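Note to self: user wants both folds in one dump. Writing first protein now.
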Amino acid sequence: MQDGQPIAYSAQTTWMLAVRDHRDKAAFACLFDHFGPRLRGMLMRSGVSAAQAEDIVQDVMLSVWRKAASFNPERADVAGWVFQIARNRKIDIIRRERRPVPEDLSEPTVDEADGEQIVALEQEAAKLRRALSALSPEQRSVVERAYMGDLTHAEIQAETGLPLGTIKSRIRLGIERLRHELKGDR
């Protein structure tokens, strides 16, 4: 109501309100018939192919149906609302098309490894062996079983007979010590 008078809405707004409030399929068909050709023409004038324009129109009108509850005639005219959805969808599609496709990443084979990589790996392994030797024998034993032997805590418990809490503590303390030792090497 405006100054005591009911607001006179356009036919398109009336259809949109019927879709919003009652999920009226006949009103939606009227919206589609009205906006479909206009959206298609606008998209094609902006350089979109006919097939792509049809896809965008379908997508936009599906969004209109899904988002009908968010339409507020006091905030926007139905035409502005629909064309804004179309504009945003077109921008999304253009961005997606312009996004570079990542190249197929393949892991290098062993033959491709160069001498520097091999030396670097050997140096890292030597640092890790030194750091492991700095651990107490008890810590080293559970850390090696957990990380090099791929054993679970329960499997380590079965092998050693140690309580689960002790195993977890030794692993945690051992890993902290390894981090400290490896950080000192850098």
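First done. Writing the second protein, which came from a different request thread.
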Amino acid sequence: MRIACVHQGYELYGSDRSFAESVAALRAAFPSADIEVVLPRSGPIVHILEAHASRIVFEPLWVLRRQAIARLATVEMARLPVAVFRAWRRLRHCDLVYVNTSIVADYALAARFLPHKAVLHIHEIPEGAMRRILVGLMRWSRADLIFNSRATRAAFGDPKTARTHVVYNGVAGPAAVEPTTYDGKRPLRVLLLGRINRIKGQEILLEAIASMPAELQSRIEMRLVGGAFESTERERALAELVETMGLTGRVSVLPFVSDPSDHYRWADIVTVPSRRPESLGRVAIEAMAYGRPPLVSAIGGLVEVVSDGETGWHVPPGDAAALAAKLQEIILAPEAWRGFVAAGRARYEAIFSEPVAAAAIAAIAADKLKTTMARPGRARAAREAETRP
């Protein structure tokens, strides 16, 4: 049995970790399968894939990124036919091709010709022209679809030409919650972990803290952890914003780390103040796994992750005043949210833990492979292989 797993990234952010967990689930379900992982280049993700992949290959992929649309529509267009042919050839030679995210355009286009072999796992909520492009690609592919939340499926629509599934990302977490030490007598430790981009809302959180009275500001310590995708300019701009707002002593801007465990252990709460819809919200899930209640924007899949007033808090997206008010409430009344820790961990284990998602991914793959293996040509080849000496 040959399985290919295709991913558009090479770092260790949310979608990268989700991909690695899907590969691990496929390996556990099909231990003797030949599993080939396809990446655009080497990077931090490779070391966690090596234990599960038969081999890892690096090939150019035709990836639809917002910041590269102009180049893709012009100079890169000549490369598209070759990329689609390469994807079609891999589909032809494999029993199953699992493609992570909807933005790998060459595989979505090639899947149309062999849809019985393709599964697209969609992890993003696009907007505007990008949404129209990605929805069109999804419908064209006719592949089976996995959405990582109900919000993601609603954004893309539910095509009648393909089987669809909603599977929440499985997230590896610690064996138990970390001890909770905040009692209101020391500064509240606030963590924001994620890419520096127009979606994540780092500037909204900074604005919220800057608007608070000096006495409350003195009761907050904050870490902004992460980097911008191939853009040092964004990283510098965020550091400059912290300085401009007079928050240098209060806010630390720290680089991306492949293992954020120490940051979660340091934190008392974790913020996800996204300005635009998150397809799910992996950081909020990880926060609950560590026993760190998440404070999130009430948008996209985040409302499916965090139960407001039970495992964390919701605030309107882009509303710095509402975020500041909620932080004040958290600082002044720590006893009011002590129960969030246990409730969040229980929610994580029941819905978002790695074994729950792995079982769902494995079941979808097994069902897909059953269909592929049942096709006359494939079944005959399998019988012939079994009778060879």
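Dump finished. Worth passing along: Confidence is low (pLDDT under 50) at residues 382-389.
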